[in-house]
Write a structure and sequence with these properties.
- Pfam families: ATPase_2.
- It contains 17 helices and 7 strands.
- By secondary structure, it is α/β, with parallel strands linked by helices.
- It folds into 3 domains: about 200 residues, Rossmann fold (3-Layer(aba) Sandwich), CATH 3.40.50; about 80 residues, Helicase, Ruva Protein, domain 3 (Orthogonal Bundle); about 60 residues, Winged helix-like DNA-binding domain superfamily/Winged helix DNA-binding domain (Arc Repressor Mutant, subunit A), CATH 1.10.10.10.
């Protein structure tokens, strides 16, 4: 069926430079990255945003006039493996130009082979036959790796004057683990002529904002990360534009209202838009529907939300905040409307707002609060 061909158009995958024409409204972020790499002398910088917002897509499409090394982390079990992964990737791409790089690469491979081989041998032989006194498991030589990283970055700077290292996939780790890794590598990565750009979890951006405004008593993120480029959520019209660019000649299979509903459901996140679009297409195929309209989309979204979010239980007073007329606005504006409309005590209204924000029923986008495009299907 012709409708089935659309599935591949809305697969959620990072865009490469060949697909750059599908990007929507990220010019400001690219400009900030270019200015940062051009004028900042050194430092660790973050690219932050919600999961699915397109951090890897932005990283894939960074074009700057300096020697740039892009690393996609695949070994993230712990602090040691992350360091080894970074060092191995740097040495791998630099071995033709930097003499010490080949030595480092071979050392890492030997280390990994020895450690993995030991672990495999223990598993194969069985713990019962191995004496604990004379079979001490080898560990990563963390400090030797740090020393090599320091030497390699020095050599890269010496050769190219300015080097940009971009590290992707670190945002998949817990905030605490990411900060431990970056803090432990400050001396090796913060040096004149070296800019390090790292994808970071969204939770770090929230903490970084508080640190910069001195709202955290013990915060020291600004000592690790010089600045963060935040990838904001897309507006509904931008999500709609993303879908139109992806669907291209297949756009006539969707009526205009259905695309608006998909954009609203996504809450500004392309991954959510692609996911629900695929769900809708599969439903249309199963029902042998040849054109997707508002009725099909509304019905399917309502069913999906009930299936995924049926554990959310609200009081009657909390449900009064599931009212589109209250949004969008600031926290104070929304609470004021709710108090006026529902005759709620002030403290109760603020408590309800904060609870719904915690549950994800109310979401923040670019400093403004709105009702989630997903959760409204539970009650509206």
């Amino acid at each position: 069926m012709e409708l089935g061909k659309i599935i591949e158009k809305v697969v959620d995958k990072p865009l490469n430079k060949t697909d750059k024409k599908l990007l929507v409204n990220r010019e400001k972020e690219f400009e900030l990255i270019n200015l940062l790499t051009q004028y900042q002398p050194y430092g660790i910088y973050g690219i932050c945003g919600e999961t699915g917002i397109g951090k890897t897509t932005v990283i894939n499409n960074i074009e700057i006039p300096f020697h740039t090394i892009k690393i996609t982390l695949t070994q993230r079990e712990n602090q040691d493996t992350i360091l080894y992964d970074i060092l191995y990737n740097l040495s791998l791409v630099s071995e033709k130009d930097i003499k010490i790089a080949k030595e480092i690469k071979e050392w890492i491979l030997e280390e990994i082979s020895y450690i993995k081989g030991f672990s495999l041998g223990i598993s194969f032989i069985g713990n019962a036959s191995v004496g604990s006194q004379n079979q001490k498991a080898p560990r990563f030589n963390y400090f030797k790796a740090k020393e090599y990283l320091n030497k390699l970055t020095d050599e890269l700077i010496k050769k190219y004057n300015k080097v940009i290292i971009i590290i992707d996939e670190l945002d998949k780790e817990k905030k605490r683990d990411v900060l431990i890794v970056l803090d432990s590598l400050k001396l090796e990565l913060q040096k004149e002529g070296l800019i390090v750009i790292v994808s970071l979890p969204y939770s770090i951006y929230r903490e970084y904002k508080n640190d910069r405004m001195h709202r955290n008593e013990s915060g020291n993120l600004e000592n690790i990360i010089k600045d963060i480029i935040f990838l904001r959520e897309f507006t509904s019209s931008e999500i709609k534009e993303i879908l139109i660019k992806r669907l291209k000649e297949h756009i006539d299979f969707f009526d205009d209202k259905s695309l608006e509903l998909i954009a609203d459901f996504s809450d500004g996140n392309p991954r959510d838009a692609f996911w629900i679009t695929q769900k809708i297409i599969f439903e249309a195929l199963s029902q042998k529907i040849i054109r997707i309209d508002e009725k099909l989309v509304r019905t399917l979204m309502r069913n999906i939300v009930k299936e995924y979010l049926n554990e959310i239980s609200l009081t009657e007073k909390q449900k009064t905040f599931i009212d589109e007329s209250l949004y969008p606005g600031s926290r104070e504006e929304i609470v004021k409307k709710a108090i006026s409309k529902n005759k709620l005590p002030r403290s109760t209204a603020y408590s309800i707002f904060d609870r719904l924000l915690e549950l994800g029923i109310i979401i923040e986008q670019n400093g403004t609060y709105k009702l989630s495009g997903k959760v409204k299907y539970l009650y509206i």
